Amino acid sequence: PGEGIISVDSLPEGRFVGRHDRVSQHIDIMPTPLHMVAYDKPLFSFGRDMFNDQDADFAINYYGSAFNFMSDSMRYVFNEHDVEVFDYVNDWQAEHPVTDLQPSDLQNIDRMKAIIQQYYRHVRGRNFTIKKEGEN
Fold this sequence. Notes:
Number of strands: 4
Strand order of the largest sheet: 1-2-3-4
Helix content: 10-25%
Order of helices and strands: HEEEEH
Largest sheet: 4 strands, antiparallel
Distance between the termini: 41 Å
Structural class: alpha+beta
Number of helices: 2
């Protein structure tokens, strides 16, 4: 892990030390401690294990009539019609939309839309639990 990043493997005597400066959100709370205690049963969560370096860092919320998707340095604002992209590290007031999108921006936009679509599919179907084998 990078400097300032906490890793489960680097916790001395099981205590937390250091600082977690990666993007995370409240829904990451459940999967993180479950991973730390080696929980091995299926679970349903839109969150992720914050200590898993393989997972892409992001946070998503709905605010001001739009979805906001935050990556390590970019903010994607989706009003269900258009997407505006902002470099929140250098333009935290979101005054200057980024127009020269990089491939990573296009991937994040697709990921944001897929998360929103999956969320609404689960809400509409009222299926928030893992079904046991043979269940409908």
